[in-house]
Amino acid sequence: MEDENRRKNQDYLYFTSEEYIDKIAKQNLGLINPGEEVIILSPEVLSETGGGLTDESESDFNDKFTNKSNSEQWWEFFFG
Prior knowledge:
Layout: H1 2-15, H2 18-29, H3 43-46, H4 55-65, H5 70-79
């Protein structure tokens, strides 16, 4: 029970932190802080070949990146 209370307290501190609030505002509300720029990558940039997408690679792209949150798409782009 003590471990559970400690974990819940840590979760509370995390979810009320400025970093978390900023992260959620950026993901869900499109917040842009002063000095930041938004980068939007086209499917061609995300293609493994670097060239234009074929119908097959476009469907692979759609399967891989649609229906995912912004952070999940970035994770997949860099580590997937």
